[in-house]
Predict the 3D structure of the following.
Amino acid sequence: DVVLTQSPLSLPVTLGQPASISCRSSQSLVHSDGNTYLNWIHQRPGQSPRRLIYKVSNRESGVPDRFSGSGSGTDFTLKISRVEAEDVGVYYCMQATLWLTFGGGTKVEIK
Amino acid sequence: EVQLVESGGGLVKPGGSLRLSCAASGFTFNNAWMSWVRQAPGKGLEWVGRIKSKAHGGTTDYVEPVKGRFTISRDDSKNTLYLQLSSLKSEDTAVYYCARELWGPDYWGQGTLVTVSS
């Protein structure tokens, strides 16, 4: 099974400051078709999850450009260039290359 | 607009059964791969399983802890996804989300709570 390890578990941030979340996979997420199916999910308190980023670095429609994804192989990063109040919640990385698994989540809160 | 609406959750005793439904709209359901994902209270997300479109064989895949106990099915004529839960255990207590899959789940429903308790 593919294990995704996120860090940090908790991320207190100041409004307007950048934030970064790491996701490390136990094996390469490059699919045999050449794509890397690593996604980022955001879940606000009491709400359903919402996908922000798909295939490493592609933003979903309507996702602000302050969110960006990068990485390759086994190491991936989600960055928020300037955190806003609505960005609080839990962020999960998720891979769909080999079955489907989620990272443990990173809780983002405002300092 | 893509909409996924789950129903059927509730309180069930250990060993019992329940069927969840997910009504889909706003996209071509019969072309979509669909998944169920669950979230235990205060915990993270866990993929339960998926069903492929009939064009891709309509086959199902499940995570190990639910194999042989849960069954995913679909009725494309009703644009509805199902999750049959049986031999339920306390550790199955969770909010169950249905989700459309496109390179992984992209749209999610609001979830339905299943509580397994005596």
In short: Chain A is about 0% helix and 50% strand. The mean pLDDT of chain A is 97. The interface with chain B takes residues 35, 37, 39, 41, 43, 48-51, 54-55, 60, 90, 92, 94-96, 99-105 of chain A (CB under 8 Å). The two ends of chain A are 36 Å apart (CA to CA).
